Amino acid sequence: MKRPPGPFLAALLAACASEPTPPARELPAYPNPFGPADPLWSAQPHRDKPLEVVVSPDGARAYVSLQGTEDDPGRHVAVVDVPGRRLVARVPVPAGPTGLALHPDGRWLVVLSRFADRASVIDTRTLRIVASPPTDPYASEAVFTPDGGELWVTNRWRDTVTPWTVDASDFRVTAQGPALSTGDNPRDVALSADGRRLAAAALTGLTVSLVDPAARREIRRIDVGAPPNGLAFAGDWLVVATLSAATHHPPLAGPDTDGDGRPGDGTPNVNFQDLQNEIAVFRAADGAPAHRYTSDTICCRDYRDVDPADAARHGDLLPPRDTWIVGGALPEQVATAREADGAWSVYVTYAASDEVQRFTLDAPTGRLSPGPVWPTTGHDPHGLAIAGDTLLVAHHLSETLGFYDRHTGAPQGEVVVGDLTAGPYPATDVEIGELFNEVTAPFTVDGDQACVMCHREGGNIAKAFSMPLTRYPGLGLRMTMAYRGAADTRPWFFEAAMDQTNFKPVINEFARVENFCCSDYTLWPEGAPADCATNPPPACDAQNPSSGDGFGAARGREAFEHPRPTPHPTRDAFFLATARRVIGRAESFGDGLYFEDPITGVRRPIPLDFDGLTRALGLFLLAQPRLPPNPNAPDTAQARRGRALFESPATGCATCHPAPSFAASTDVNPFGVPVRMRPVVTPMRDADGTNLDLFAGGFMDTFPTVEMETCDEVCGAAACAEDPDVCDDVRDVRFGAPGLRGIWDRAARFLHDGRARTLREVLCTPGHPALRPGETGYNERDGVVDAHGGTSHLTPAEIEDLIAYLLTL
Amino acid sequence: MRRGEWLMAAALAGCGGPDGGGDDGAADAAVARTMRCELGRERGGAFVPLGEDDRAELVLGFQGFLFFEVNVRTSLPAPTKADALFSVTLDDRAPFGATQIDTWITSGAEGHAMSDAVIIFLDGSGVGAYTGKTAEVAIRLDGEGATCTASGRVRLVDEDPCVHTGDTPDCP
């Protein structure tokens, strides 16, 4: 979906052979429309966002990349004296330092800056940059071969992993290439100790490319079914930190999303209960799956969790109990160490629950045994490295590098490597929202779910899910949406249903009210006692066996009995207590998140309860995350031709996707087109024609900005009174026009249900000559072509022109 | 007069502004025109002021959200959209509120415009904590260079036997 490498890089390499190194060119940030004119805006402090950490071979020094954000990138690498626990230096580098690779001899540190067209080579003896080899922007992570003769670099823009041949005597890159294609948005990369296998993890493409470095050949594309986050080799095994492959469908109903030839995803849990944290172990030699481990909370804290003994809900399809060993949320990075007894220690950071866990890997079998889960002293633990008996963890949000005894987990201090001039994190209401977005798990009933599991790095992943808002939950699909650059594309979601003030249904899935005694309407059909929150009645202490499904519970029926997951009688009490523990406060700062008296205009901070934290998240989405700067040149002849087509009345693209947001929204809508409109592609239908895109009636009643044709409108009151479902095959929902900015960086699943795998499939009408073998044109609505813009008249070359333009947005 | 003061004066005057309560205040580039508005409920398509019916049904909605609705009758030019900033005071709880952005204001049969429902979500204390209570509601509508405020009291009732947590109302 991205452009192939062009002559640009080759020319740059050639030029650098004899000329002094020119300064790096940096990609400019997108302007942020959320500014001082908005009453919710407030100035935000610069933060450095420490990301990766590497340690010198002697364990004396650590180097930390300070990545920053998309519109306020970091520009330094921190150098830390490990034994002394102190910051030695901050070495300036081009914008957005991300990946670090230390040469095996410890002399050269390569820094990849994602927004720059040059890497930096730092001489660790002098801490000076001695070379700036050219690279494409969005070089992400890198690893040296054991002999130090090659550096393998992933690139998020190109979707490649590329060997750089290195002369380490004075560190010169003598050759680059050939680039090997990977899945979408490769990030982490690891090399086996013997140098015979390399693994590159496609973060949003959900695959791992297993490569034979010597042969320059991908030997297997491993389908992980979920984002492969960090990964590391341990002897004959490849350990991948990931999430569940499930799609939130019932085990034996709905689309076949696990590819087993049967309906459903094969897992008994549905909706967000399917969101598990996993560690997968593959055989290093050939990538064959060996073991897969899942969350230790897979059952049964939330009342919706399926119990293994619950035959009615296919509890027997849960993973075996001895695989429930993953003890935190969002397994992010992995580090391994060979111990004296031959076993491997495996360390995993849990970014969404502020934890680290140690495992032991049995070398002959690759089996993991769980060790303790340790809390980190900083928020959003990301990169980690081992220095002797010390584990070093980069706290991405807290701006610190933490030290821990790697055998006991005992904290051994922190060093501030980032920017705390504005005060400890969080210091603003936007930062509270950011913290909730990244470290959501403590606020969830299961304790192991987070926003960023699916919205990886503010983007999306190549996966569509069953969502509970639909009329036929478990049967339909909704694509994960990227939520970068959301400030001027309200209302949000495909359904154009919500904004920062009305974001509740999503967060609700993490902590449903039925889990808390006083709001459990199945326990209190007429309402709990008025003083339930302050004086919980004895019924709140009941620990009843879990059974049934609360979705259909109603007054007058038998109470839905289940144990209470927390001692808090209400969800707000749970949120406030967790906010005190995690955020360090139970009230907003008031700089962007406040209560305003409509009459007096007086403002004051608000409690960080369910409503408060939901609004904090909405505020964060207005301010951040921003779109990654676009590396595609906008002024090529092909892009110009594509733009002319995009803006032409014949295609009509710009009418519903107008610049500058390329979405019809309440914020930007120059042509006044409806913000919500009938679907432009054929709805997803069941075998009997039932429209699986329809919304739940209760959803529309509670959030009335969502729109759907009623049965009465379409088929008449009489027919609908007899059978409310009579019209479901011909009724329609109303969808918004999603924004197109940043589409170059998104996972390659498009349209509301993710049916299109390429932009060509989105644009082309069925049978269009531009389609490639295996592709399907989805620009039709029930057989009427050009329903999603006029493209049937375009030549294949013009379709490619249009795509080229879209990739520049 | 500072903004807060004239907003208070507007409220005390029953939604009039410093110009005497008219809805024809001269447009000012810097100050929004102050218009009339009144709090009530939509019943069968018509606006019913709180003075005639102060009941507001507690709705147990999708996925267990608890809320009630109010509407605003206004002299804001319609159709238009306005941001509805509201506050609720209940018992001895601290006042709470939010903004419902882009709330539609449409023309009604009586010559005045009426807002779509402003949905006021309550916390997770459950229906029992709110039934029979009186809530003081204040609202400010801001849209199209005009503003108005209204306040009133609503009695929270639980008369609908159904729950609306799922796809269709579930009634005993």
What is the percent of helical residues of chain A?
10-25%
Q: Please, what is the oligomeric state?
A: heterodimer
Largest sheet geometry of chain B: 12 strands, mixed
Query: Quick one: overall form of chain A?
Result: globular
Number of E-state strands of chain A? 36
CATH class of the domain at 3-15 and 54-160 in chain B: Mainly Beta
Mean pLDDT over the residues of chain B: 80
**Any idea what the radius of gyration of chain A is?**
26 Å
- Based on secondary structure, the structural category of chain B is mainly beta
Distance between the termini of chain B: 56 Å
Low-confidence runs of chain A: 3-18, 544-558
Q: Strand percentage of chain B, roughly?
A: over 45%
> Helical residue percent of chain B?
under 10%
Give the helix tally of chain A: 12
Tell me what the CATH architecture of the domain at 3-15 and 54-160 in chain B is.
Sandwich
What would you say this structure looks like, in words?
The complex is a heterodimer of chains A (809) and B (172). Chain A has 809 residues and is α+β, with helices and mostly antiparallel strands. Helices cover 12% and strands 24% of the residues of chain A. In chain A, the strands form 10 sheets. In chain A, strands 9, 10, 11, 12 and 13 form a 5-stranded antiparallel sheet that branches. A 5-stranded mixed sheet of chain A has the order 18-19-20-21-22, with no helix packed on it. In chain A, a hairpin with a 4-residue loop joins β10 (150-155) and β11. In chain A, α2 packs across α5 (610-623) and α6 packs across α12. Chain A is globular, with a radius of gyration of 26 Å. By secondary structure, chain B is mainly beta. Chain B has a domain at 3-15 and 54-160: Immunoglobulin-like (Sandwich), CATH 2.60.40. Chain B is 6% helix and 46% strand. Chain B is built from 1 helix and 12 strands; from the N terminus they run αββββββββββββ. Chain B has one helix spanning 3-12; strands at 33-34, 37-43, 46-49, 55-57, 59-60, 66-74, 80-90, 96-107, 113-115, 118-121, 134-143, 146-157. In chain B, strands 1, 2, 3, 4, 5, 6, 7, 8, 9, 10, 11 and 12 form a 12-stranded mixed sheet that branches. In chain B, β8 and β9 (113-115) form a beta hairpin. The model of chain B is unreliable at 1-29 (pLDDT under 50). The interface between A and B is large, with 64 and 58 residues.
